[in-house]
């Protein structure tokens, strides 16, 4: 996921300290997390289909299926830039991305698309990068410091319009098709089983107040402190709720990514309008819905949070939470990112015994 646009100081992001919020307490004690495996690298996405659990590990390029003994059996491997995975019956869809230099976050993306696996084992590729080149849905939006009275208004680096930049991040099944949260294009796209692409919603820029820390990191003069920087929305998680409601999490691009500017939105599929349901999140990268609860993985927050009744509260203390999914029986699954503290891991949260399907479907 390309999350930053350092317009004034290259490499500044790496020098910044992350802000860690979350002090609210949960309304009721959730079940303790049960660890299944601790051999994951970058589990960007989970798919819980009944008792079948799939893990999209972008660090290894493997979609694996969890086994009852905690092992993970590869289903598809060798996927470049693997991100989201979703299922719909015997269908599967997953994202892939190719960049010039995969080791660099800001490396130009050459290809990004959705791979749709049919029940017969064929794969249809929907080229979202080509679609972005043709449409650039956020091309009319202005990012950066847009105030003409700002002391940096004359600097051509201070503002820019939406760039041609597709990066498939997460995917979910939706009414016989698929919805994609594209973190580069700042859009939600619909993809049919035949690979036809359309734009569902364009996420507006996110206002972030420039602090002294942000100004210093971006190489801005002190007079810019207090100005508003409009960051790219960067949709990350996407899920469908009761009645077909569409929910999206956003992790704003730099400098929003180093603040608590993350949010959850509900998207109107007819108009594309987005209504904010929650804000103040720390790098939300995934969400899942079960009944009236929305579970959110916050990479730099307290772990997995839950949004219910308009309030966000902690659900599971899993630092580095990267992805979350829910099964039809209400089981909550979550995976963490590998870090200096150790490899990534997969957990389940459920009051009873959790069953896992061992039969591998390829």
Briefly, what is this?
With about 350 residues, this protein is mostly beta strands.
Describe the structure.
- The chain has 362 residues and is mainly beta.
- It has a single domain, classed as Neuraminidase, CATH 2.120.10.
- It contains two helices and 28 strands.
- It has helices spanning 128-135, 212-218, and strands spanning 34-40, 43-49, 52-57, 62-66, 72-76, 85-88, 91-99, 109-117, 123-127, 142-144, 159-161, 168-174, 177-182, 187-191, 197-202, 206-209, 228-231, 235-240, 246-250, 262-267, 274-281, 284-290, 293-298, 303-308, 311-317, 321-326, 332-336, 344-349.
- The strands form eight sheets. The protein has a four-stranded antiparallel sheet with strand order 1-28-27-26, with no helix packed on it. A four-stranded antiparallel sheet has the order 2-3-4-5, with no helix packed on it. It has a four-stranded antiparallel sheet with strand order 6-7-8-9.
- The longest helix is centred in the middle third of the chain and has 8 residues, at 128-135.
- The radius of gyration is 20 Å and the shape is globular.
- The two termini are 27 Å apart.
Write the layout of secondary structure elements.
Elements: E1 34-40, E2 43-49, E3 52-57, E4 62-66, E5 72-76, E6 85-88, E7 91-99, E8 109-117, E9 123-127, H1 128-135, E10 142-144, E11 159-161, E12 168-174, E13 177-182, E14 187-191, E15 197-202, E16 206-209, H2 212-218, E17 228-231, E18 235-240, E19 246-250, E20 262-267, E21 274-281, E22 284-290, E23 293-298, E24 303-308, E25 311-317, E26 321-326, E27 332-336, E28 344-349
Antiparallel strand pairs: 1-28, 2-3, 3-4, 4-5, 6-7, 7-8, 8-9, 10-11, 12-13, 13-14, 14-15, 16-17, 18-19, 19-20, 20-21, 22-23, 23-24, 24-25, 26-27, 27-28
């Amino acid at each position: 996921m390309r999350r930053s646009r350092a317009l004034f100081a290259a490499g500044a992001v790496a020098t910044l300290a992350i802000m860690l919020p979350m002090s609210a307490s949960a309304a009721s004690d959730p079940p303790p997390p049960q660890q299944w495996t601790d051999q994951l690298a970058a589990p960007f996405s989970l798919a819980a289909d009944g008792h079948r659990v799939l893990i999209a590990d972008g660090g290894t390029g493997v979609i694996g299926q969890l086994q009852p003994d905690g092992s993970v059996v590869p289903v598809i491997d060798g996927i470049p830039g693997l991100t989201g995975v979703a299922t719909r019956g015997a269908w599967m869809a997953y994202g892939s991305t190719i960049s010039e230099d995969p080791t660099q976050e800001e490396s130009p993306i050459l290809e990004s698309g959705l791979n749709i696996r049919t029940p017969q084992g064929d794969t249809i590729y929907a080229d979202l990068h080509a679609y972005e080149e043709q449409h650039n849905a956020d091309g009319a939006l202005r990012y950066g410091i847009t105030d003409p009275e700002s002391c940096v208004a004359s600097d051509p680096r201070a503002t820019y319009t939406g760039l041609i930049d597709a990066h498939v991040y997460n995917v979910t099944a939706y009414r016989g098709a698929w919805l994609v949260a594209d973190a580069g294009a700042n859009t939600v796209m619909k993809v049919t089983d035949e690979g036809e692409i359309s734009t569902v919603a364009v996420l507006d820029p996110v206002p972030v107040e420039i602090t002294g820390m942000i100004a210093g990191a971006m190489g801005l003069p002190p007079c810019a402190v207090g100005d508003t920087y409009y960051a790219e929305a960067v949709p990350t998680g996407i899920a469908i709720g009761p009645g077909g409601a569409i929910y999206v999490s956003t992790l704003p691009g730099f400098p929003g990514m180093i603040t608590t500017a993350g949010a959850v939105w509900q998207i109107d599929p007819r108009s594309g309008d987005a209504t904010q349901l929650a804000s103040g999140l720390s790098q939300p990268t995934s969400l899942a819905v079960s009944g009236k609860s929305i579970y959110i993985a916050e990479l730099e927050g307290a772990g997995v949070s839950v949004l219910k009744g308009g309030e966000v509260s902690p659900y599971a203390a899993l630092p580095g939470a990267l992805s979350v999914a829910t099964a039809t029986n209400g089981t909550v699954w979550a995976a963490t990112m590998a870090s200096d503290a150790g490899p990534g891991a997969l957990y389940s949260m459920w009051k009873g015994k959790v069953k896992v399907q061992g039969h591998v479907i390829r």
